[in-house]
Amino acid sequence: MYQHNRYQKGKPQQVAVVGAGVAGLSAALTLKKQGVGVVVFEKDESPGGHLQQWHALFPDREPAAGVLDLLKQEVSEQKISLRTQTEVAAVTPSGDKFRIETSQGEQNEFDAVLLATGFQLFDAARKEEYGYGIYQRVITSAGLEQRLGHGGTGLTVNGRPPHRVAFVHCVGSRDEKVGNHYCSKVCCVTGVKQAITIKEHFPQCEVLNFYMDLRMFGTGYEELYREAQEKWGVMFIRGRVSEASQMYDGTIQLKAEDTLMGRPVRATVDWLVLLVGMEPEKRAQLWARSLGLRTGQAGFFSSPEKFLHPSLTTVNGVFTAGACTGPASIPESVSQGRAAAISVLEFLAKKDEAGK
Ligand SMILES: Cc1cc2nc3c(=O)[nH]c(=O)nc-3n(C[C@H](O)[C@H](O)[C@H](O)COP(=O)(O)OP(=O)(O)OC[C@H]3O[C@@H](n4cnc5c(N)ncnc54)[C@H](O)[C@@H]3O)c2cc1C
Ligand code: SF4
Q1: Third-level CATH fold of 124-277
Q2: Which atom of ligand 2 is least distant from the CA of 186?
Q3: pLDDT per residue over 168-184, tens digit each?
């Protein structure tokens, strides 16, 4: 059922890629172009991972659908063997190979495995003070992405444009109470990107961002933050929202503290957007641990050689890429996927050499 490859001098070699997000697909494309046999396992119905859910991408607000289409087109042109609706349930060593077991109970052996299992969103209901899951107009940044399409009609309230929208940064990140000490890295710039998109759709809407500090780590991110303030009039308030409650008309009332001015703030908003953080994909983490993979403090996969060979793991022949190794943007995940493919090629070449 799986194609043979041109790469090896000896026996045909096959690589399993777990996860068809941008990291997994980039890795698979690189491997395939080098003549290696690849099978990509994806638990969802279609490939693309979280990119499928986004509206426009930071830093340029390029439509996500266009990027996804290009990726899918390349996957189809390269005839990548893609097994959708197939969750990998276990990876176990079997001689000098790895046995992949799927949730359907199917088993196949591969010469190397590349894990690109991505992230899951922090469950905002765990922060009870914001009322997510109870109040209809408290939504997450991921939920907002869905509402930003079609001119932002998902944000209108009884047919009228929203008057005021507030964002809360660091929901489920940098938070001792939920046990996540790390910064999720992409949510600050996501909040800025989304604030601008709201202003593009509804220029009269007031947009407030409540932050602890702003982390604009990537190229073009700081410029986007300036644009949000100077061109679009988005307001940034340093302080934590301590409480949100629903008013009789469905609006949300916030209590916060402006820590720069040292005074309490109250605001009534049409929508409260929680910028939720990234957590490691829990199910993949479980079987990966039983395989002997090391995870860092935050639970993301970590490499024993994180400076020079970041895609290596503690198990020879198993590699990682993308947001399963820690919060990452799309370009970073793509680069990691490609880099991991090179490490896989080096491993296969050595294996091939040894087998002769
Ligand atoms: C709200 C929000 C907005 C964002 N906006 C942007 C943006 O504008 N620009 C940008 O650069 N980045 C953005 N990001 C970051 C971006 O989503 C990530 O960089 C990217 O999704 C990481 O890709 P990935 O392939 O590593 O993981 P994922 O996208 O999570 O893909 C992993 C894939 O693996 C599959 N999988 C997991 N476990 C298994 C298993 N056991 N078996 C089979 N399949 C499995 C999953 O179903 C999924 O399809 C945003 C993130 C958030 C939270
Ligand atoms: S990127 Fe910003 S919002 Fe996200 S955890 Fe880090 S500081 Fe908080």
Answers
A1: FAD/NAD(P)-binding domain (3.50.50)
A2: 1
A3: 999 999 999 999 999 99
